[in-house]
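Input protein
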Amino acid sequence: MTDAVVIGGGPAGLMAAEELARSGVSVLLADAKPSFGRKFLMAGKSGLNLTKNEPLEQLTAAYEEAADWLAPILAEFESQAVQVWARALGQDLFTGSTGRVFPTVMKASPLLRAWLTRLDTLGVARRARWRWTGWDSDGALIFETPEGHVSHRPKVTVLAPGGVSWAKLGSDGQWAGLLAEQGVELAPFAPANAGICIDWSTHMTPVLGQPLKGICLTAGDTQSRGEAVISRRGLEGGGIYAVSKAVRQGADLTIDLLPDVSKADLIKRLAQQRGKASLSNFLRRKLKFGPARIAVLQEFGRPLPADASALATRIKALPIRHSGLRPIDEAISTAGGVTQLALDDGLMLRDMPGVFCAGEMLDWEAPTGGYLLTACFATGRWAGRAAAARCLAG
């Protein structure tokens, strides 16, 4: 007989299991994949941005519509607490110039190994290749395992199976149908922090894979100074991810190819005689444009105006024609999921006493930059503590 079952071996599930075990509750942690933390490890390939080192109010504001909901949860496990926790697992950290916090080793595997060792020491029973398939008629959890069907009836359950992106890493969203069958309210899923789909013309082939640096992207009221990478299928990268929510909501996307140069100064440069130089060579010489900038300007700006003022306007607000965001399974994260109204203050489902939810399955979204992992850690910790309190209360 297990007091608590945690479903999902990502950061939210691991944190929930840790809190339950620290409270003296017996815990079984189950994941459908052969190993734990697969999406966590994938995030670590680009450096494992654990959190953002900024004041709590500023950190919380990044969650926009969900900020009020998440505020007390984040207050209990904000940026400084995340760093203290990671260092206690033997991880040396550093803070970059933008406030992003990383392990010095710039990867996730050492932290994950230390974390799993801690859980083992706390007595957490880990089960890989255990796929949760719902509840039976008596309310017991049902799993498909290498040994066949297994059922468990714990005192409390914490669900932390992730969102609906990167299914091959375990976040396949099959849990949504299981909760919908129980009448749980779910907000529609949508891609978040996703690339933009563009059907490039053939003249872009030489610059595929090249970054656009020092640009400013604008979509609606959202601006981003991050870079964008010209991929075979469109635009990717942190700068694009930051405006993807506004694009998803229907805002037009523009790029300022020279955000650090005023329009007036740009007009002066463009008004100079170019003689026999081609436009590309002129832009390269006068504006320091490289092949990627020139290609993108030609792709979306042709026919380019001869008038200096009109050309400056085009360079400062180049409209990007696209066909929307990349498919949801390719998104870094997802919007939608279990709504706030479906949960009580402890993240327990109102209509399913004893069942708690945490992590990306909840209806919140945030930009990249440490916010995603911070909220997963914080909600996992919050749900784990609330579940432990309910379990110990009998």
